[in-house]
Amino acid sequence: MTPAVRAASVLSVVLQNFYFLPRRALRLQLSGIRDIIRHTSTNSASLVPSDTQSIPKDPRTCSSHLQLDPIVTQFICCSRCHCLYPYEPDSSLRSDRELSAIPLLCSYRETKADGACGSELLKQKRIGGNEFRSIPIRKYIHQDIRAWLGRLLSRKGIEDHLDNRPHLPTSAAIDDILLSDILLSLKDSSGNSFLSVPGDECRLVFSLSVDSFDPFGNQTAKQSVSDTGIWLVLLNLPWYMRYRPENMYLAGIIPHKPSTHKINHYLQLVVNDFLELWDPGIFFSRTYNFQLGRLAKAMLVLVICDMLAVRQVVGYANSPTAHYFCLLCDLDIHDIAVFDRKEWPSKSLADAHRFATLWRDAETQQERDSIFAAFGWRWSPLFDLPYFDPTLSTVVDSMHALDLGLFQNHCRTLFGIDLDHVGGDGSSSLPPVSKKVTSTSTSIEIARVKACNKLVKENGVGMLYKLLAFQRCDLYTICLYYDIRVEGGRHIVGTRWVLAKQIYNWVRYFLVQSYIFLSGRFFSQRQSLDNAAIMGDFPLRNAKSIGLNIKANDDVSDKEDSQERESVAEIDDNMDVDNDETDEETDEGTDEEMDRGDSGDNEGVSEDERGEEMINVSDEGEETGEADSQGDGNSNDLAHLIQEAKNRRILRHLTDVSADRAVKQGRALAQATRPLYFAIGRYLQIILPTRGKKLELHNIIVDLARTALSSRRLC
Amino acid sequence: MREKLCSFVPVDNNEVQSAVLGRDVMETVWNDMKKSLLPSWISPVPHNWGTKTRGKLSADNWRVVCTIHLPITLIWLWRSETERKKQLLENFMELVTAVRIANMRVSSPSQADAYDKHIFRYVRALPSLFPHHPLRPIHHAALHVGDGIRRFGPIHAHNASHYERHISFLHQINMNNKVGEYICQFLSSFPCSCNRQGSSKRRCLEVQSVTPTF
User: Fold this and answer.
1) Per the CB < 8 Å rule, is A63 touching B137?
2) Cβ density class B68-82: b for 16+ within 10 Å, e for less
């Protein structure tokens, strides 16, 4: 490329990209330059006539000569479900045959039970005469992060900024996000500090922003068309470089606005890149400072969007006015007037992850809807990132919340701007709005609450999930009635899930403690028959006094217990804990009963009238498949595992909290397997963290037993 | 007959809420705006903000109005009020203080605490001062801004203005009014211009002018 050609190309590119000249004008400009050169070259020795030939006619050729075009991957995008199919235009445009790799109709299925989407992906376009060619109806272009990062690292000076590791501030005040606690405490895949790693590795942190906008500018007030952009900002750069267009990574612009989870297809592309960047990282064969190449690793640490988009991106309930209105705490919209920070229930990552997974793996659309209604979570590809925590990594964007939110709201709504009247004091003759209090409930509502109450009293299997089928107000009523609230809390707050969990815990604590110490589930020597008196009607007698922190046990039960215990002591003395696990069946042959599975259990339960059915153990009534994810799906497996536990006497070690705890814990841990712990957890109706380690699971079970023990002793 | 009937209708039903920023207040604000000299790094607000002809204000406009012009005028205007207007002013100033603290260039735990203190006071007083307006989710969201400062440091690194700026940048790119295909053009010309800037604007990289975010 001779200097003249280069100059002409650069000029056209600058005009195109800085002054946004249309292509038509650029073609004119290029041909003008060609003419000038042709006429001057006859007089000048430095200009060669051939230059006129090599000056491009089209501005697009200029930018490709200068290698300015981004390196992108193209996808065909389904116009209905936004599913993406890889697409290579160069080959496919030539012949229709090569398009055959792309399905003509979208074959994406939302859930297993759903049919394929079935909308068309390609359309016929006439290209002169009677010739037609298939072209995609909608395309999505994704910029490759490897190429983008490679170009960035090849620029002079960038690496100096990137490698400028944050210095710990001397005072408490920090001036940039790089010094913030969260970023400094990031860990890489091997557990070391992510940002301050010794050696030449390039460690990058990104933030993600997604927003919709009108591609035609803000010409009309009503937005008719919208597109959605995905930006990533490299936070390692100093703040004055971070937001320059050349330093921001625009992953792509989604045609139109995908609703709710349909954005996942696009986010998945970003997440796939980041999974690779997390572990093992991407090796660049040569950068500006490192001639021999260097490894780059990156994390996605922050999601910065407005209130709507952030919910869509992390897979939370879509509307900020829904029941699930806050992404950072578990308050319900009805608790919006609770200002005490201590009362806000915190969100847990494990819960969110579990619910999102449940939603993703649901078989039918109805199931998905019910899961979403109960928990408020949908799946988001960001959950694939092992380090991502949606409750920690999202911020309330101050621009939308404070400037456009509070200030605007205060001036326009609270103060009110009225140019026709003289200013007043903002008082109103309108009746004050308050929480809607309905003094009279409809019969349907009463029936619902009654049904809910019955469920709580019954305390059947899978109660927690059955509770979630009720509306939040029903659960609230139950909480109010039994005075169930968090320890130290003054209000009953939380979303449906929080309330259901509280009710469940409340019942469970009572249940476990009475069960452990009254029926002697865990103590073989003191095994007693059951005391139906307490178990049968506990909500009526004890509910008011117990609460979450079990306050009192009635003396009656105590006496009954001790009497029974004595009477049964001899019988059970030589039975050890192994038999106790199947209390229902102790009367009959235990082992056969277990093998018969669920039906057998139910028979056994109906035969004995001690009210033991509350703790009907080998159930298969869990609808939400929590147990399935833990690998012990059916009751046969469970029975088998419990049998195994019996043989190994693990349950005894596991749950004996009386003495020698360390020794027994060690023994139990050595013998038990994770599925076994989950079986035990399910057996006791305890929710165990799906990802928990063995020791963790062990401790949860033992702690529960100990809490019950200590509260028992206090009484 | 008609008059008789009318007498039964309450008179002031039309005016359900007396606006605070009425004609006289707004005119005072506009007058004061003309007299006040702002530093050059504060972008001026439209001189007739709040009128229908002016239309929407940007986020930056609202911030300047509420942190500069309204305090200047309202404090002077209501200097001798004792009743409700005094409470209104105090409440409004809590909000202004909170936002100014949040927008500081540096952050520290004590700053986040101060933000929390003021914003909580502000939100807590709203139901009693404006009983006819329900609390909105945005109020609760504002209570969480302090958490963001504690976790991620000063607010300039984690607010949304950068991509909003980019959207206006994208709007300048010519796309021939084609909805289906301009998308490709967007992406191909956007990073293109970025790359171009990267190679030619190197001199700008060293400029470290500290622009206070207010």
Assistant:
1) no
2) bbbbbbbeebbeeee
pTM higher than 0.80 for the full model? Answer: no
Map out the domains of chain B as residue ranges. 20-158, 161-204
Residue A549: how many other CB atoms lie within 10 Å: 12
Residue A344 to residue A493: CA distance in whole angstroms: 7
Q: Does B203 touch chain A (CB under 8 A)?
A: no
For A145, phi then psi, to 5°, come to: -70, -25
Would you call A714 helix, strand, or coil by DSSP?
A: helix
Both structure tokens of A376: 């408020």
R_g of chain B computed on alpha carbons: 23
* A84-87, strands of its sheet edge to edge: A84-87, A72-77, A139-143
Q: How far apart are CA B188 and CA A143, in angstroms?
A: 9
Residue A580 tokens, joined: 């106790």
Query: pLDDT tens-digit profile of A564-583?
Result: 333 333 333 333 333 333 33
Residue from the list A328, A414, A424 with its beta carbon closest to the beta carbon of B22: A424
Please report, for residues A408, A427, A552, B127, the alpha-carbon distance to residue B15 in angstroms, rounded to integers and kept in the order given.
22, 11, 58, 21
Q: Does residue B166 contact residue A304 with C-beta atoms inside 8 Å? A: no
Q: What angle do CA A577, A542, A497 make, to 5 degrees?
A: 85
Q: What is the mean pLDDT of chain B?
A: 76
Does residue A562 register a pLDDT over 60? no
Least confident of A96-110, A160-174, A227-241: A96-110
Residue A271 has a pLDDT of: 92
What pLDDT digit, counting tens, does each position of A49-87 carry? 566 777 888 888 887 777 777 777 888 888 888 888 888
Residue A7, phi then psi, degrees to nearest 5: -60, -45
CA A42 to mean position of chain CA atoms: 70
Q: Does A339 touch chain B (CB under 8 A)?
A: yes
**Distance (Å, rounded) from C-alpha A262 to C-alpha A124?**
26
Helices (H) and strands (E) in chain B, counts: 10, 0
Q: Is B97 in CB contact (< 8 Å) with chain A?
A: no
Q: Which helix (H) or strand (E) holds A548?
A: none
pLDDT for the residue numbered B114: 92
For chain A, the average pLDDT equals: 71
A296-310 tens-digit pLDDT: 889 998 899 888 888
Residue carrying structure tokens 């169930």: A484
Q: Give contacts of B 138-177 with A, CB under 8 A.
A: 138-145, 147-148, 150-167, 169-175, 177
- Look up residue A79 and give its amino acid: S
Report pLDDT for A530.
34
Strand bridging mode A248-254 / A294-303: unpaired
Count chain A–chain B contacts defined by CB atoms under 8 A: 366
Q: Is the pLDDT of residue A656 over 60?
A: no
Query: In chain B, which residues have their Cβ closer than 8 Å to the Cβ of A399?
Result: 59, 159-161, 164
Give the gap in angstroms from C-alpha A656 to the nearest C-alpha of chain B.
42
Are A248 and A67 within 8 A, CB to CB?
A: no
- Mean pLDDT, rounded, for A31-48: 75
